[in-house]
TrEMBL record:
Spans annotated as Disordered: 1-31, 356-376
Record organism: Actinacidiphila epipremni
Transmembrane residue ranges: 43-64, 70-89, 109-134, 140-159, 166-192, 198-217, 268-289, 329-349
Keywords: Membrane, Transmembrane, Transmembrane helix
Entry keyword annotation includes Nucleus: no
Gene3D superfamilies registered for this protein in UniProt: 1.20.1530.20
Low complexity compositional bias, start-end: 367-376
Pfam families in UniProt: SBF_like (PF13593)
Descriptive protein name: Bile acid:sodium symporter
InterPro entries (alphabetical): Na+/solute_symporter_sf, Put_Na-Bile_cotransptr
Tree of life domain: Bacteria
Length: 376
């Protein structure tokens, strides 16, 4: 018989939406003094093994790039992996839940505006102001970063940690990914131009590689959803392996073209600084807009985390499909921004989680007065 765990009076219930992320509730985070536990959990999220795996894949491509027949085979396998990735996305998406989430349309419009309007404007402004600091390929990658959809998993995790509106974060990530399949190629073609394979044949190939598998996943969801639910962990690893393969293939092609001769330490530092400025502006803009529009604290948390983040899982396959052999430097800004947003948002989520901790409801207090206002 499992042991019962008593909850102290006034403590929030352990609902699924407020569980700690896997791997953050053991070890030093559990034995550390209470004020530091949340900070340690945030740092554990920064040191994600997947981030380390991405860095290791780039190093592997630099040391042992795929060449000749191996490069052709790796490219074809990567194409199949991308199709499988979007098939799984379609199989996991519940159309009923997505439609039900439309009731919070004001919140979702704000997040979509931040993702597909604010970020492209920031990319154009920052790129024009610092054009001499980056190579044309890195500038292209910076613009591509700005048209990528928002994240799903990490936005949900950070919103949950900060005690925000988790349901809104789930729907916002879903809508952003769906619209991104259409808006990302259109915005990339309009802002980047000739570097993108933006033609009738290119769009048809993109639709065949991304949209068709997604729609197939939706159509077959009735039969595949149960299998995917039962093997969630294995298929999650397959997702990540597919993305790592895309990274390896793209950087292997980049090595053949000598892209690393263009990437010096000062340019990498300038790129990281520019991305930090963009992230700070996005965080400030989403927070200010959500407050001015009168959203409650839980919704403001969801707006900030969903509206300021970019999806590595969706962006890398799209970059491979849009840029082809030139995808190496195009995905580098997105990979750096991914690590930067994890670090910054982990600190914010930890801080807001501490400040937004529900207090014991006192007799006679009005309902809804337990959460501290003005957190975002």
């Amino acid at each position: 018989m499992p042991a019962l765990r008593l909850r102290r009076p006034g403590a929030p219930p352990r609902t699924p939406g407020h569980e700690a992320p896997p791997g953050t509730g053991t070890g030093i985070a559990r034995t550390a003094p209470r004020p530091y536990r949340r900070a340690l959990r945030g740092l554990a999220r920064i040191a994600d093994p997947y981030v380390l795996a991405l860095a290791g894949t780039v190093a592997l491509a630099a040391a042992v790039p795929a060449e000749g027949g191996a490069a052709v085979a790796a490219g074809r396998i990567a194409d199949v992996a991308i199709g499988l990735l979007f098939f799984l996305y379609g199989s996991r998406l519940s159309a009923r839940e997505a439609l039900a989430g439309l009731r919070g349309w004001r919140l979702h419009l704000l997040i979509l505006a931040a993702t597909f309007v604010l970020f492209p404007l920031l990319g154009l402004a920052v790129g024009a102001a610092a054009s001499s600091l980056l190579t044309p390929q890195l500038s292209t990658g910076l613009l591509f970063l700005c048209v990528v959809p928002s994240t799903v998993q990490s936005s949900i995790a950070f919103t949950s940690t900060a005690r925000g509106n988790v349901a809104a974060a789930i729907c916002a990530g879903t809508y952003s990914s769906l619209l991104g399949m259409l808006l990302t190629p259109l915005l990339a073609g309009g802002l980047i131009g000739q570097a993108v394979r933006f033609s009738a044949a290119g769009l048809a190939a993109l639709g065949l590689q991304l949209v068709a598998p997604f729609l197939a996943g939706q159509l077959l969801r009735r039969w595949t959803h149960g299998f995917i639910g039962r093997h969630k962990r294995v298929l999650g690893r397959l997702d990540r392996l597919s993305i790592l393969l895309v990274v390896y293939t793209a950087f292997s092609k980049g090595m053949a073209e000598g892209i690393w001769r263009q990437v010096t330490a000062p340019r990498l530092g300038a790129l990281l600084l520019l991305e930090a400025v963009m992230l700070a502006l996005a965080l400030t803009a989403t927070s200010t807009a959500a407050r001015r529009l009168g959203f409650p604290a839980e919704d403001r948390i969801a707006v900030v985390f969903c509206g300021s983040k970019k999806s590595l899982a969706t962006g890398l396959p799209m970059a491979a499909a849009l840029f082809g052999p030139r995808a190496g430097l195009a995905i580098l800004p997105l990979m750096l921004f991914h690590q930067l947003q994890l670090a910054v948002c982990a600190v914010l989520a930890t801080h807001w989680s501490h400040r937004n901790r529900p207090r014991q409801h006192s007799p006679g207090a009005p309902p809804g007065s337990d959460a501290a206002p003005g957190l975002v």
